[in-house]
UniProtKB/TrEMBL annotation:
It comes from Shouchella clausii (strain KSM-K16) (Alkalihalobacillus clausii). Residues 6-74 form the S1 motif domain. Residues 72-142 are annotated as: Disordered. PANTHER family: 30S RIBOSOMAL PROTEIN S1, S1 RNA-BINDING DOMAIN-CONTAINING PROTEIN 1. Pfam families: S1. Residues 75-86, 108-134 have a biased composition (Basic and acidic residues). This is S1 motif domain-containing protein. GO terms for biological process: translation. GO terms for molecular function: mRNA binding; structural constituent of ribosome. It comes from the Bacteria. PROSITE patterns: S1 (PS50126). InterPro entries: NA-bd_OB-fold (IPR012340), Ribos_protein_bS1-like (IPR050437), S1_domain (IPR003029). SMART domains: S1.
Amino acid sequence: MSIEAGSKLQGKVTGITHFGAFVELPGGSTGLVHISEVADHYVKDINELLKVGDEVTVKVVNVEKDGKIGLSIRKAVDRPEGESRPPRPHPRSGNNRGGGKSRPAPSFEDKMSRFLKDSEERLSTIKRQTESKRGGRGAKRG
């Protein structure tokens, strides 16, 4: 059986790694479902969603010349028209609930001055700690 990109197949999970799951397809070939293609949400631990031996429906994303098969579980799920992934929160808004006034983005100069201030504070803390380990400023060596 030839496997082509875009086709949906039933498969069986044969192995799980930290980066994805290996799925055996009809005909004995094996493909990889990358962890980012398992679900529509962020997946920290793939073991929470899949176990070895699970039957899954996958969509063939690509077939490499060297025979590697890229698969997706989340693309194999048919969604009704108009339904898509949940909206992602905007990075500067903190939460995506709205209701409050949004602050303007800090300028480059503001970010740079805050960075310099933080750096100077960290350096002075490190110097103080280092000097106390050596016995202070006026300590004589040896």
